[in-house]
Fold this protein.
Amino acid sequence: MADFNPDVLQVPIQTVEKPTSVTVFGVLNLAVGCYQLIRILPGFYKITVGACNNPEKIIGSEILVLLLCLVGIGLSVWLIVLGIGLLGMKKWSRRGSIMYARIQIVLIAITIGMLVISLSIGWSSLPKDRLGVFLFQIVTGLIGKLAYPVLLLIFMQTARVKQAFSAEGG
């Protein structure tokens, strides 16, 4: 008869195959985060160099843009880290991706509010023949910006993705 060792219990490990959507969004998080950094950094550099050269000529809008650039850089780096985490099936990366998507949706809603306010203030100065094109560009631009965080939020909350991340080791 074999000796029984209570310290060595054999517990079956639950394994779940990684959903394709997790891999896709892991790669997309990396790509979108890198793209956002590439897009933001030149403007950030230009503003900071201008502020260093002429600190007395800084206006409020430049400070706001500088703060928005810093927030954008932080969110971009966070998205890159989340992409790496999703590829490695880290639980924190799924929760972080959901949080990122929600923050982006709120920021886009704030942007929409700011656009509506600025349009209502400067509505009369817009050329009447270009108004439709202008509004179309705003709407399509916002829909394009909103598509990724909405899809990320939806896919990270599917039952299959939840199950994959709740499995031991996930």
Notes: The mean pLDDT is 82. The chain has five helices and no strands.
